[in-house]
Automatic annotation (TrEMBL):
Keyword line: Cytoplasmic vesicle, Endosome, Membrane, Synapse, Transmembrane, Transmembrane helix, Zinc
Organism in which the protein naturally occurs: Streptosporangium oxazolinicum
Domain of life the protein comes from: Bacteria
The keyword Transport is annotated on this UniProt entry: no
Family affiliation: Belongs to the TMEM163 family.
Designated name of the protein: Cation transporter
């Protein structure tokens, strides 16, 4: 089996969608790189493990973007074998993200860390809450049209990134009134979603979900 196996007679529209998927993944890759650097910097400045963890999780999510860029580059664009490999790689990235979130929450709770206000942290996470849903939704729609579970899975990770950012923002805002548990609760729930989506991606169901 080689990367030359073709999915189905790809039309000109299919190839346009493939280029869109690759472009969106490249944009996301740059976004997540900046998000990670700024999130970790904000977390270090505010002594917030929640922000540091969120910035670090962006690096894991960037792996899915790299996989989709690889998937739709060169002769792999029309390859069924490349899609299969990309699909399984995205599933693995979900499985890396899930235990990371749980272990991060466990560490925070054991150390007694709580999210603290940070202007930079608020700006970066708010940008993610606003922007990532657009990228995630667009990729999931492209995933359906391309029959690409890898693309749809990356879109799901973008939506999860926005939800994580919302959890961090909520933690920063509500910690002062004692609702510190919002952030870790959100992280644990998303870890469960990540594990489930990993299984769906591995079986090839995410593009239709």
């Amino acid at each position: 089996m080689t990367d030359q196996i073709v999915l189905a007679p790809p039309s000109a529209e299919w190839f346009r969608d493939a280029r869109r998927a690759r472009t969106l993944s490249l944009v996301t890759l740059v976004w997540l790189g900046a998000e990670s650097v700024l999130g970790i910097a904000a977390g270090l400045g505010a002594h917030s493990v929640a922000l540091i963890g969120w910035g670090a999780s962006a690096l894991v999510e960037a792996a899915a973007s790299l996989i989709v860029v690889w998937r739709f580059t060169g002769t792999r664009t029309g390859s069924a074998y490349a899609e299969e490999r990309a699909r399984k790689a995205v599933a693995i990235s979900f499985w890396i993200l899930a235990p990371y979130l749980v272990l991060h929450v466990a560490y925070d709770l054991d150390a007694g860390h709580r999210a603290v206000p940070s202007v930079l942290g608020i700006v970066v996470t708010a940008a993610s809450v606003v922007g990532m849903p657009f990228l995630g939704t667009a990729k999931r729609r492209l995933g359906v049209r391309l029959h690409s579970t890898a693309t749809a899975g990356e879109g799901t990770q973008n939506l999860m990134c926005a939800l994580l950012a919302a959890g961090v923002l909520a933690g920063l805002a509500l910690n002062s009134v004692g609702w510190w548990w919002i952030d870790p609760t959100m992280a644990v729930l998303l870890a469960a979603v990540a594990a489930r989506e990993g299984f769906r991606a591995w079986r090839g169901h995410s593009c239709c979900h």
